[in-house]
Structures are given as structure tokens and as C-alpha cells.
Amino acid sequence: MFPDNLHIGPLPIHIFGVMLALAFLAGAQVLQREFGRKGFDPELASSVIVWAAVGSLVGARVWLVLEDWPAFVRDPIGFLFTGSGFVFYGGLVGGALAVTLLFRRHGIPWMQGADAAAPALVLGQAIGRVGCQLSGDGDWGAVTTAPWGMRYPYAVVCGIPPARCGADGQTVWPADVYVHPTPIYETLAYLAVFAFLWRRRREPHPDGSQIAWYLILASGARFAVEFLRINPVVGLGLTAAQWTSIGLIVLGTAQLLRLQRRWRTAAA
Asked: Alpha-carbon distance 131 to 77, whole Å?
């Protein structure tokens, strides 16, 4: 990882922000190809990415405020405009709402549009986690003795409460100890999901199944990796991200089962 002190003149350039921009650009290229293949206007892909970017950034901040209300109350301006702390699930909700409005505006069936967006979305997640790894944006894991453990000497976020960063109630900065590089784990998992969806997209399948598989696999990856991170437990030994993952897995599974029943009935 690198120190987050890049500048162009007086303007700070955050490493995570650079990788987030690359994630959106890569997603736009994938979505453009899928829109063209499905018969939609490929030029709309850029508009979808812009709407998704704005919606996801707003959604991520709203989610972060709800997740850490005391910190927001202490410093509302600094909390909202910090260059770190992007909460993916908040971004997913905000981006989905914004893109839904755009789909309706241009007459794109939601299931077909969501299927086209699924590979782009998970590829963007993979690249975004590279940004977390490079910037030390608070997504590292628990202390470990594994040979691939890493230190984060330029970490920009420790997290509140301190339990996110330590063990046994002690505050531990990842510059001092070796921890699980969980952003790398997530990047590899999301790239595997992208490969699965990219290969599957040309196979016969009902509309809506790509986004269903995305919800199941990407959320399953986050659920598993969360066991190695030190985030606050909110209930039954699980974190808020894990409970959200469970909800999305259930949603995706229900959608997939419904589509498969309809698919078999139509083929009979």
C-alpha cells in the first residue's frame, strides 16, 4: 500500500478515489458491450454509470451516517466529505435506485438491464477493493500469523469503535501487526464471480437470473470474508454486513427458484 498523499498542485488525489474512478470506467466498458449484445443503445451505458456513480456515492454516505451516527453528530461536514469510508451495500442500494429511474426513463426492462449490469457491477467491486488495499481504507482483517499477512503502515481509517481495529478490546493499528489482507481476498472472490457471470451470459437463461446469481455469489463472498474482518457484531455473532448479505442471498435464491420454475413450465 502507499501513503495517501498524492497531489496535483494544491488538490489532493486520494488513491481510493482513483481506483473507484477506474472501477466505474471498467464497468462502463463491460456494460456497453452487454447493452449492444442485448439490443439496447450502447451509448446509454455511460449514462447508466454516471447515474449509478451519483446514486451509489449518496447511498454509501447515507448508510455510513446510519451505521455510525455518533461520529456524524460530532463532525457532520468532515464525516460526509472525507475521502474514505465508502460503504458498498449503501452504494448498492443508492445506485440501484438511481439506475432503476434511468431504465424506466429509456424503456429498458429492469430484469434485462440488471442482467447486463451484473458482470459490470462485480468487476467494479473487485477494482474498488484494490483501492481499499492500496489506501488502507479500513477494510483489513484480524491479526494473523499466516505467511501472507500484511501490515498497513499508511492506513487512513482505523474505524469506530476501536474493536474494528483490534482484538480483545485493545486498539491495534495495522501498521504495528500483521493482519489478514481481506481486500485482496474479496478482489479474488469478485473476479471469480465476474468470470462465472461473463461466461454464463451467452448461455440460454431467463431474464433476471444473472442478477440473481450476482446477489447470491457476491454476497456469499462478502459474508465469508467478514468472518476474518474485525467489525462490530450486531446480533447472533454476525455483523451488519453479514446480515445484509444473508438478506441479499435469500432474495437472489428466491428469484432464481422462481425463474427456474417459470423456465421449466415454458419449456414443457
From this structure: 23
Torsion from C-alpha of 93, 99, 105, 110, nearest 10 degrees: -80
Q: How far apart are CA 19 and CA 2, in angstroms?
A: 13
Write phi, then psi, for 11 (nearest 5 degrees): -90, 125
* Residues 6 or more apart whose Cβ sits within 8 Å of residue 124: 23, 24, 26, 27
Residue 24: per-residue pLDDT: 87
pLDDT < 50 stretches in the chain: 158-171
Q: Partners of 11 in the beta sheet?
A: 8
pLDDT at res. 87: 62
The closest of 125, 121, 113 to 34, measured between CA atoms, is 113
Q: What confidence score (pLDDT) does residue 142 get?
A: 85
Please tell me the pTM assigned to this model. 0.82
Whole-Å CA distances, 104 to 54, 60, 153, 208, 229: 17, 23, 46, 16, 38
Distance CA 150, CA 211 (A): 34
Longest dimension (CA), the chain: 66
pLDDT at 222: 95
